[in-house]
Design goal:
The complex is a heterodimer of chains A (302) and B (491).
Chain A (H helix, E strand, L loop, with lengths): L11 E6 L3 E4 L5 H20 L21 H19 L1 H9 L2 H6 L1 H9 L2 H7 L1 H4 L23 H10 L1 E2 L13 H15 L9 H9 L3 H4 L25 H10 L4 E2 L2 E2 L7 E2 L9 H13 L6
Helix pairs in contact in A: 5-13, 8-13, 9-10, 9-12
Chain B lengths: L2 H14 L36 H10 L3 H5 L4 E2 L2 E2 L1 E4 L4 E4 L2 E3 L5 H21 L2 H6 L1 H17 L2 H9 L4 H27 L4 H9 L5 H21 L1 H7 L1 H8 L7 E4 L1 H4 L25 H4 L20 H12 L7 E4 L1 H4 L11 H22 L4 E7 L6 E2 L4 E12 L5 E8 L6 E5 L2 E4 L4 E11 L7 E10 L6 E9 L5
Antiparallel strand pairs in B: 1-2, 3-4, 4-5, 6-7, 8-10, 9-10, 10-14, 11-13, 11-15, 12-14, 15-16
The chains are: A mainly alpha (302), B alpha+beta (491).
């Protein structure tokens, strides 16, 4: 900083660097200063008018401004406009969904598309946790995008499954619970052979005999294919309800599905329960139908 | 740094530095040889208008902008010929309808004109600024009207300085009204490209304009009035980025309006030589200052090319008219490059690297535009492969993939889209729902496609598959979408 000031009359502050770089003291324009002061006056207004003070009053409510305005109220009001518009716009479609059967909804192209389009969020909220996004399935939870249905793949059957839920039921060690470990090994090999189309090979004869002795055919059908969809897996196809791993298959035969003893699940049994959604879903009358149509079109509806 | 120290520094600089006598302690721009050319800061520039060649060229080029005002009223096939229909996401240009899928053509158009700007600037300086820029043109028209109302520059200056009076208002108010009217016409015409022009007029008189239209017309109209009427050359000097970009694109081979210093200097007024007196050795410039008086940005071209100069050529007109009067050859101020003045010849345009590069990119862009317009298909298909699950194991052992097909009908008639699959697999099955998709003109139809291929047939995790879409009503309208069938890793 220079000690002497070569520009005494220009109103600089006397701070001079590099010989000629100097700090001036020019006032800002009047309009600028007026806006500046006006800004401070506005602070007083804002403080009184809006909820500025971050404290709660005696009742635990936060301090509102004189206007009583809150951001969440404004948001809710705005959002209500959108909601009302949506309700009004699609009122007739919702009525139709409520009045028609799922089979008829499926036939009506426009209504079917509406049901599918309005189901995505519902499916994500209520179904995808177990069945995966898009019905992709999860380990031990059924895939909904394939064509293998334990309880039937027609849209009305899907609707019934969602509405009332499903509980799998397979006894441990055969119907009578009397199969030995060796017999279980044999029947395990037999059902794997069934899915590969080799069930009548002589080497699996022992397993086939166990299949009959254990009364497996009562549910799974004489040839490994259930006569009607009632929760029993089709053993002749390539889709496994739980896992295609041999140990896992053997475990299901040995410990069954949802087997209880004295009100407790036995060790190693598969737990497979689809809850009833008529109580869980909001507006269940319509939403169950909507979801049935959505699931039907995921890739394997019949 | 104290005075004593600085003295030592400058002394050591004189003694030892390569800079020799240059004072290094004080780094004024002047001291390092940079000359700052003056910018007109003395209020409104009131430029004189004189006729001439460049004046004529300016009017002819400026008249292009009349299309802006006429354009919205052209009709084609019952609709507005040029219409950016934002609500329906369609751009109509006479017989052509461009949907958002073809918007890349717009990018090519922008690229073409950006490079045209670069190329023309490389060859002849700020041609855009001087002749074609809407700001230049509107300002030109506004000042022309100003002269009609208020008279010659000296009269206008006097009027500006005169105290407010009824007389002054009588002159000023009509001018401002006309300016505002032009501003309104400009903004209205702009908005009319985005909505039906005739309907816009009808709704104006019925007071049915929406807030968007009203805001744009008012804001754009007032900005036109403000920019062309008041800011004028300050826009070019102070904050137009194009002015600076173009200034930076000029090089020594670029021809720009230049004062021929060798011929003009030393300048001086011509006077009759008295007997016995030696005639002063003067150049051709008679220092009449007419080139400064006509400059719309208020620069003195005799100081050389500078950032205030928009290369409008009006100083050339002024100087030529003076040269004609004093019977000297024209061209004391002329379009010339710096290289010419150093005695070197200018290379031919097509031998300059920048011109070659710019032209190459322009050719590419133009080619792409032509290709785009020539191959613009009336159908556009997007096949969105299901992401979750990517594939499904079916009970009979095949693998299923799912697609959502979006079929865009860009034509004018209803399309019956039939979807088929081409692939190498014999045992492939597929379902399309709906089997034939009906798509209204200008809309998008959606169909679901399920394809099943036996797992044992799949040799790769990803197999190419062709989704073919054809209009049943009009079989030459068809397209193929190349997608991929995804399966598990082969065992």
């Amino acid at each position: 900083m220079a000690n002497h000031n070569p520009w005494p009359d220009e109103g600089n502050t006397g701070h001079i660097w590099d010989e000629d770089l100097r700090e001036l003291d020019n006032p800002p324009p009047l309009w600028w200063m007026l806006s500046f002061y006006a800004g401070f006056i506005m602070i007083i207004f804002y403080t009184l008018y809006y909820p500025v003070i971050p404290l709660t009053d005696k009742t635990g409510e936060f301090t509102k401004g004189m206007a009583g305005w809150t951001a969440i109220e404004e948001y809710n009001e705005d959002f209500k406009v959108l909601k009302d518009w949506r309700v009004a716009k699609f009122a007739d479609k919702e009525e139709q969904l409520a009045a028609m059967s799922v089979a008829d909804i499926l036939k009506d192209d426009e209504l079917r598309q509406y049901a599918v389009a309005t189901s995505k969020v519902l499916f994500g909220d209520y179904c995808a946790a177990c069945h995966g996004a898009g019905g992709a399935g999860n380990p031990n939870f059924p895939v909904l995008a394939d064509d293998d249905w334990l309880w039937g793949g027609q849209v009305a059957q899907i609707e019934a499954s969602i509405k009332n839920g499903r509980i799998g039921n397979m006894p441990a060690r055969g119907m009578m619970g009397n199969l030995s470990d060796e017999e279980i090994d044999n029947v395990t090999d037999y059902v794997i052979a069934l899915s590969e189309g080799k069930g009548s090979d002589p080497q699996f004869a022992a397993g086939k005999a166990v299949y009959a002795k254990g009364m497996c055919l009562a549910c799974h059908g004489p040839a490994g294919k259930p006569l009607a969809p009632a929760g029993a897996a089709n053993l002749t196809d390539q889709v496994w309800r739980f896992s295609s791993d041999r140990d896992a298959i053997r475990n299901v035969i040995a410990n069954g599905v949802n087997v209880k003893k004295n009100g407790e699940y036995i060790e190693g049994t598969r737990q497979a329960i689809m809850p009833a959604f008529k109580e869980r879903l909001p507006n269940a009358d319509v939403n169950v139908k909507r979801l049935a149509v959505y699931i039907h079109q995921l890739g394997g509806g019949q | 740094m104290s005075e004593k120290q600085s003295e030592t520094a400058s002394k050591s600089g004189t003694d030892h530095s390569v800079l020799g006598g240059v004072e290094t302690s004080n780094k004024n721009l002047e001291n390092i040889g940079v000359e700052l050319l003056p910018v007109h800061t003395g209020g409104t520039v009131h430029a004189k208008r004189i006729p001439g060649t460049f004046r004529k060229i300016k009017w002819i080029l400026a008249s292009f902008w009349l299309i802006l005002f006429v354009g919205p009223y052209l009709r084609w096939d019952g609709h507005q010929a040029i219409l950016w229909d934002l609500a329906n996401r369609q751009f109509h240009f006479f017989g052509l309808t461009i949907l958002p899928q073809d918007i890349w053509i717009l990018a090519m158009i922008l690229l073409f004109f950006a490079l045209l700007l670069a190329a023309s600037t490389a060859v002849a300086g700020r041609l855009w600024c001087g002749y074609f820029c809407f700001h230049t043109v509107w300002t030109d028209v506004f000042t022309w009207l100003e002269e009609k109302f208020e008279g010659q520059p000296n009269k206008r200056q006097k009027l500006d300085q005169a105290p407010m009076s009824l007389e002054k208002l009588k002159v000023k108010i009509p001018k401002h009204l006309i300016w505002l009217l032009i501003g309104f016409a400009t903004s209205f015409s702009f908005v009319a490209y985005f909505t039906d022009a005739i309907d816009l007029w009808a709704r104006l008189f019925a007071f049915e304009w929406g807030s968007v239209e009203t805001t744009i017309v008012v804001v754009l109209g007032l900005s036109t009035y403000f920019f062309a009427g008041f800011l004028r050359e300050q826009t070019c000097i102070g904050f137009c980025p194009y002015a600076r970009i173009q200034g930076a694109m000029i090089d020594t081979q670029t021809v720009v309006p230049t004062y021929d210093q060798d011929r003009g200097e030393p300048r001086g007024r011509m006077r009759r030589v008295k007997p016995g007196e030696e005639a002063p050795d003067l150049g051709d410039c008679i220092d009449c200052n007419l080139c400064v008086a006509v400059c719309p940005t208020g620069v003195d071209i005799r100081l050389g090319q500078q950032f205030g100069c928009i290369t409008c050529g009006l100083c050339i007109d002024a100087c030529d008219s003076v040269m004609d009067k004093i019977k000297k050859p024209r061209g004391l101020i002329r379009y010339a490059s710096l290289q010419e003045f150093t005695g070197k010849k200018l290379p031919a345009i097509w031998k300059r690297p920048r011109v070659i590069v710019y032209s190459a990119i322009m050719t590419f862009a133009a080619g792409a535009i032509l290709y785009g317009l020539a191959t613009m298909s009336p159908i556009d298909v997007k096949a969105l492969h299901e992401r979750s699950p990517l594939f499904v194991q079916m009970s009979n052992g095949s693998i299923q993939n799912k697609w959502t097909l979006k079929v865009v009908n860009k034509g004018a008639e209803v399309m019956q889209a039939k979807i088929t699959i081409g692939s190498e697999f014999q045992n492939m099955e597929y379902d399309v729902s709906p089997a034939v998709l009906s798509v209204q003109p200008g809309t998008v139809g959606s169909a679901t496609l399920l394809v099943r291929i036996p797992r044992r047939d799949l040799t790769e995790a990803n197999t190419p598959i062709d989704i073919m879409v054809e209009d049943v009503n009009n079989p030459q309208i068809k397209t193929t979408y190349n997608s991929v069938f995804i399966g598990p890793k082969p065992r």
